[in-house]
DNA sequence: CTGAAAGCGCTTACAG
DNA sequence: CTGAAAGCGCTTACAG
């Protein structure tokens, strides 16, 4: 024998003995994998309760060849979108008795992405969720072996067979259209200078303009994180003729642009309307209160888990995988007071 | 036999066979638990590499009676403090080959806290971290059995044998002192109407005032989340004689107070200085740029894991637990332009 | 509906 | 330094 046993926590055998049945029967009871005689059911239930028995996930995992858990590979761990999505995933997973492992993919070169994926997979999770908010998610997808249930969260269309994405492009279109409806003849767009996917708010801006037969100008790009440059861009816009409406790709950008506009002597929203995107906590307190668009990351997380769970169940039952699907989670405009009719 | 084997992933036996040694030898190699002849080491290393072998954490956990993982019980999953701390924990855990499980404790009644703790413990994690930013953390602590390595994160002094907390009280003292140093004779304090622990910024405010021999007034409380009430409180303060400096317990509160002050016709910082706490993303963009105080949650998370890991190692080696300890993580003032000399 | 047996992939006391 | 054996706590094919 390896070491002394001295159970501190009850194991299935203890339950079986107390209920006067065999361990497999307890197992079947627990997993609903066979019918159990009513009297035995009762005795088992009572024994579990009396002992405070909780099955060992490790033992179960060893037997099942996989854990009742899912791992999320998160490309931008410090962002609100990530933590809100995580929370949604966790809530949905918990209902199914699944545990959540988080492994972050930030700040990593490609080699390290692979190492982290291997590490996350070492527990043999039943499935994985990859957040494709950043490039690291894309890399992770490449090294995750086939056959393990996967859903891609937050990418563009076509990045995976199973995806849940937010209606970002639609949101951008909506916001732009809103400005157009207010009578503005043109809406300018300021964005960070980084690649955006197909499903981007920026493309939504283009969609709206095209829909109205307006020639789409170049968007104004600002080096990532350089708020001062965004202020400068705002100032420049403020001096330019014919600028009456601006859709900023993020609230931060909107605020910086407003600052620049003021430096150029323009008033918001009287002279120029400015709206943002993301609905950050401070928007309502801003002067003027900033109109924005909110995305429902918590909902995304929940749906992503459910989509993953369907695959997991199909795999466990040995039936066909559900058909490929992409779910789109709607967001919602938050109208405040930073825009006005033209 | 239970089911057909058909190894998709290599197991220790495969490595052993390829390296022409026994499985226990591979195990000892992997865990450094015995000396291995040099030639065998080489063969084993080569075999592992060739096969792309990764030990099964589940099997290991079953044998070791515990998993190489830690679980965090997070009382306020949606807050920045939580996700930043998580990230720090995860980074430190990863270096030790430990996985992180997150179980959130929000929105739960007491009964559900207990169920979640049981669930989190079902994997037999090597240790647990409980975030005591909210009451749920306190409850969780009550139901976590003795003997499992635990560290309390973000509570007050004395909430556990092992704690890491931020220098919040000291931060509050520092901020208040800063205002006093600028020549203000009194500093008022606005806070949310919720219980704050011993280690609170509010107590730091009291500390500073007392230190300077100033009678400590009642702090001004605002119902949680009611920003409009905070604006009203600011307005009231603006009309009151002799108010020259306000330390708001959070940046949101500071901004709302400033709004109220302006409604009362006062200028910030010319007439009245206002500073916040937490250093939120928008502070620098505010008008005026808001002076605040930043806490290092990422660092807290890292230290918390390391403190936990020491206990885990002690327990595994069977040596004495490290002495009880509380580590304090320093924050840092972020001086901007919302305060001025009196 | 139910039990005895074997197996999941590791680790460790035991005996060289 | 190293191997054969037994055990960790479950699950499942097999045979009633």
From TrEMBL, chains A, B:
PROSITE patterns: HTH_LACI_1, HTH_LACI_2. Pfam families: LacI, Peripla_BP_3. GO terms for molecular function: DNA-binding transcription factor activity; transcription cis-regulatory region binding. Keywords: DNA-binding, Transcription, Transcription regulation. SMART domains: HTH_LACI. Residues 10-64 form the HTH lacI-type domain. The keyword Transcription applies. Gene3D superfamilies: 3.40.50.2300, lambda repressor-like DNA-binding domains (1.10.260.40). SUPFAM superfamilies: lambda repressor-like DNA-binding domains, Periplasmic binding protein-like I. This is LacI family transcriptional regulator.
């Amino acid at each position: 024998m390896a070491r002394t046993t001295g159970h501190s926590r009850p194991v299935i055998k203890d339950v079986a003995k107390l209920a006067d049945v065999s361990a497999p029967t307890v197992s079947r009871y627990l997993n609903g994998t066979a019918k159990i005689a009513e009297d035995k059911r009762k005795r088992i239930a009572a024994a579990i309760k009396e002992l405070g028995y909780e099955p060992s996930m490790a033992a179960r995992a060893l037997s099942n060849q996989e854990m009742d858990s899912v791992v999320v590979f998160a490309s931008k761990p410090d962002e609100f979108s990530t933590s809100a999505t995580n929370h949604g995933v966790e809530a949905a997973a918990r209902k199914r008795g699944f545990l959540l492992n988080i492994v972050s993919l930030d700040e990593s070169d490609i080699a390290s992405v692979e190492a982290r994926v291997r590490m996350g997979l070492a527990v043999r999770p039943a499935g994985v969720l990859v957040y494709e908010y950043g490039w690291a998610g894309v890399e992770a997808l490449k090294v995750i072996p086939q056959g393990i249930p996967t859903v891609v969260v937050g990418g563009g269309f076509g990045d995976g067979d199973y995806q849940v994405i937010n209606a970002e492009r639609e949101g951008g279109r909506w916001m732009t259209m809103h400005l157009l409806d207010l009578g503005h003849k043109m809406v300018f767009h300021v964005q960070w200078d980084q690649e955006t996917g197909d499903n981007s708010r920026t493309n939504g801006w283009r969609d709206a303009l095209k829909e109205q037969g307006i020639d789409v100008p170049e968007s104004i790009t600002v080096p990532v994180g350089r708020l001062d440059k965004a202020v400068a861009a705002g100032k420049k816009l403020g001096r330019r003729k014919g600028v009456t409406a601006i859709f900023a790709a993020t609230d931060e950008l909107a605020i910086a642009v407003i600052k620049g506009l003021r430096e150029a002597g323009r008033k918001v929203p009287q002279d120029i309307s400015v709206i943002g995107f993301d609905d950050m906590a401070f928007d309502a307190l801003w002067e003027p209160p900033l109109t924005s668009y909110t995305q429902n990351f918590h909902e995304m997380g929940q749906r992503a888990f459910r989509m993953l769970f369907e695959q997991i169940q199909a795999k466990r039952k040995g039936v066909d995988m559900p058909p490929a699907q992409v779910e789109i989670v709607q967001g919602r405009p938050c109208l405040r007071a930073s825009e006005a009719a033209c």
